[in-house]
Amino acid sequence: MRLLPKHYYLENAKLAFPVILSLAGQAVVHIADSMMTGRLGATQLAAVSLSGVVVMNIVVMGIGLSVGLTPLAGSNWAKGKFRNVSHYFQNSLLLNFSASILMTLFLLSILPFLHHMGQPREVLQITNGYYTLITLSLIP
To answer: Which mean pLDDT values do the consecutive 10-residue runs of the chain (140 residues) have?
Structure first.
């Protein structure tokens, strides 16, 4: 196996860094939520964890959709086709905003069915507020 020149890996790392940073940021938010909620008790932590797991499974699809822009924009940027980068970005904004609306509507529509996941009643009673809040935060 032949390795590529060192500058190739450095350029890829520069392109990938913002994507890595945003994904790490998502994980840190969930960790911080769990740490703050864990002090309130097991029921509250269970409610936050349930909400986070359900929402994150849908968010992964959105992340997969949004990271598709990176190689397209990077390729055109490297070729000096800045107008194409602008078009990709504008279309990506529209696509990602539309996808976030659809994901939000889907997640809100399954809220009444969370009781089928076998969670205790006291957990489900306090899940709605946090679940709704993180679901609505998908839009921005």
So the answer is: 81 82 83 87 90 89 83 85 90 92 96 90 90 90
